[in-house]
What does this fold into?
Amino acid sequence: MKALPLVFIGQSLIMAGVYFTSGRLMTAQLAEVYARAGMGWRTVVVSATIFPLANFLFGCAFAHFTPAVVSPTMIAMTVVTQILFTVMVPGTRPGL
It folds into this structure.
């Protein structure tokens, strides 16, 4: 499972970008950034920096490993990173 770190980091970057765009990533530390930059600017920043890096990592995973290994790993890491971000980021847990 050598593809696991590439895919995990890539999925984590995607989730971090989504949470940054919505203003929920590290709200206390990035409060000034969220106050100054609207969602449109945050989307541009994430689209120009974080998402290309994540796609590069996914490309590396597919270049070095077969799709039969990378595809299930990507599905599993998507679920894992969504669960981790939901638990770690305040205000994103669904009410039970």
Q: What stands out?
A: The chain is about 75% helix and 0% strand. The mean pLDDT is 90. The helical segments are 3-22, 31-36, 39-48, 50-64, 67-88.
